[in-house]
Amino acid sequence: MSLAHGRPYLAIPGPSVIPDRVLSAMHRASPNIYAGALPEMVAGLWPDLKRLAGTTGHVGIWLANGHGAWEAANSNLFSRGEKALVLSTGRFGLSWAESASKAGIEVELFDFGRSTPADPNRLESALRADPRHEIKAVLVTQTDTSSSLRNDIAALRAAIDAAGHPALLAVDGIASMGCDEMRMDDWGVDLIVGASQKGLMVPPGLGLIWASERAVARCKGADLRTPYWDWTPRFNATEFWQHWYGTAPTHHLFGLRESLDMIFEEGLEAVWKRHKALARAVWAAFDAWGADHPHIALNVADPAQRGHGVTAARIGPAPAATRLRAWTETRAGVTLGIGLGMDTADDPRSDGSLRVAHMGHVNAHMTLGALAVMEAGMQALNIPHGAGAVEAAARVIAQSA
Length: 401
Known about the structure:
Blueprint: E1 9-11, H1 20-26, H2 37-42, H3 45-53, E2 58-63, H4 66-77, E3 83-88, H5 91-102, E4 106-111, H6 120-128, E5 135-141, H7 153-162, E6 168-172, H8 184-187, E7 191-195, E8 206-211, H9 213-218, H10 232-235, H11 250-266, H12 268-290, E9 296-298, E10 310-315, H13 320-332, E11 334-338, E12 353-357, H14 364-380, H15 389-400
Parallel strand pairs: 1-11, 3-4, 3-5, 5-6, 6-7
Antiparallel strand pairs: 2-8, 7-8, 9-10, 10-12, 11-12
């Protein structure tokens, strides 16, 4: 017998849960793309998107997923043959490096692994060793969706400044925007890559770029641009179609408008605090499950280095995590994330790893319910685990409310 009938919960790190308000905002006939409600509504998106990122700079939207947003960043930051220093802390850091390399950018890769954040001291040393300033930009994820590692962006900026290097700082905020604290101007970030399907609670399809005045000025001559990816007409649009280089992503924009309204109604700092509390509840559960059971552990040991939108963990021995994910989805209606990029020689399919998302439109009962379902699955599948996990998570929620 399955107990999954009813409303399912997709607890994966993107696409995230879409609020009913966002679905309702998108549920409409196709609008006029030349005048009226759509262009009037979009005019208010730009200041709110800047507010979301903490910037007075530029913002543009592309019809694309996160990989497309990387391409928009690469195309506007670099000319062919220019050099990027990529600080990777998981699968998506490596993927951004691959994207840049395939575009003709020279990539120097610092791979910090999947459980260790980017080291500001190593960054500073690398930049000091570049007296000719060949490195044009440093690329780094804030929170890598695969590993759940969260990098200290302000510290990385400080390292660039300490080296006296003019490199731009470009940050992948796809998994962190709307989940983790983001202060683009205060932290000295020159470019942020974003996407609609995670903390912004909109279906996949919108790639976003926030860019500083410094980045725009430094990159005017970038020769990797093609007409679609060029941010110049988007940042300086005088006609509505120029924002998208063609037809607007109509219904996504209505959804984005509603999601931004929801974020600012709650309060941006309150949104960050909610994500932090839900993340801490998940961590408390894993700490209890893993007590005296070393085959269950969080991927990132230091809580200060964990993202607040997604948690990567090990539940072994393989294929225990894969078996548990199958049970929670088919028997209880909770879909957990795969252990993306967490393969090892002993576990080449990452069957001993999974991810629990707590990003976007997620509250206490959804998180506590997912944890309770996971515990039921461990019991049903005879996966050894420590006791008191749900109670530990509940205490975190009680203390945070």
